[in-house]
UniProtKB/TrEMBL annotation:
Keywords tagged on the record: Ligase
Domain of life of the native organism: Bacteria
Upper classification of the organism: Bacteria, Pseudomonadati, Bacteroidota, Flavobacteriia, Flavobacteriales
TM segment ranges: none
Protein name as it appears in the record: Phenylacetate--CoA ligase family protein
SUPFAM superfamilies: Acetyl-CoA synthetase-like
PANTHER family: CAPSULAR POLYSACCHARIDE BIOSYNTHESIS PROTEIN
Signal peptide range: none
Keyword Ligase: yes
Amino acid sequence: MLNNLRNFLFWTIDTLTGSKKKSNFQDIQSLLENVNSKTSTKRKKEYLDAILQHAINTVPYYKNMKPQITEFPVINKNIFRENFKAFQSESFQNEKKRTVSTSGSTGTPFTVHQDISKTIRNTSDNLYFWEKAGYNIGDKLFFFRLWNAFEKKKSFINFAQNIVPIDVFDLTPSFMENLLKNIQKGKGNICLLGYVSAFEKICKHLDSTNPNFRSNAVKSIITISEKLNEYTKESTSKYFGITPISRYSNIENGIIAQQPNNKNYFIINEASYYLEILNLENDEQQQNGALGRIVITDLFNQYNPMIRYDTGDLGMIEEIDNKKVLTQITGRKIDAITNTDGEIITFNIVLIVNKYLQLAQCQLIQTNQKHYTLKLNALQNFEKENELIADFKKYLGDDAIIKVEYVSEIPLLASGKRRVMVNQMMQ
């Protein structure tokens, strides 16, 4: 009853304030569910042309550019940070804005301003993709992230939105026991959203303490920020009866892509972003089926236009059912490991350690093309080091030189996430 009331109040308030979220929701729905129609194609081009022209007319960094997307330079966090004022629209300096910040994988602060229309578009993006994952406004949402690193919502807002914020650093055994009891009390209206590593930790806790645990209270699980691995996917399905959905998003822009139910590819959010896959070494377009840099143009941030923004991630586009979709997202470029032949390994080979129950954590560091370091946090004496090295060599190459270091802990980043693969050659 209370959940239905929250839903009703949300949409009533939106109606009273001009139905901006609803109209954006309907626009996103129309564009993504009729992606190849002439109307959708025309409207997406209009959005792209409009943000390019706006940037040329009002943003110092983009003045004198030609109004074609390929004429704009590819930018990244460093370029944006070093020219921060030059990326701000002169026509929005006195307008209300929302400031979002992220530390990224380096711990260096990165800030973006968003105008009010952009924040409304982001909210509507969330509403659409949440609904596709089984979540509706008013459902109880357990949100796992490093909350100390983000702007905290006030308690009454969390109550009104039915959000339970859970800091990933709080996931101790006793905390997880209480959390699981609370989830068990649910009535089929609970949704889980958060880092893959948080769900992995919960599942491994259940593996060791209560492998017969089952819950029917969860209706939706969405993973963010990290690649969804097979262990976590299978384990959450076993314990909660729900196959998790992976979402590709960032703090500075919003939802870029999301998996449909029971699919391994990602639907690109073409309603709000123009997405390109560019060559690893230059800014040439990659062909479908080739791995490259994910570069996006935000169609709705007029305060801080972000055009051809290199996200730092790698991906691959292919065509499925006459739609361009992302079939691979490998995560941060800096974490892309190569084998001894210099070929990029596009999946997390550290998952090998899941069969070694004595290991609590593992981090693979590449120091040069043939030298690697394995940092291992072992719960007890680890007697299968040679076997583990042999397993890694199957992927890295028989001529890989692997040094093992035993540590007491592999620390989380400032973002609350843990890098399991580090390529020092790219730093």
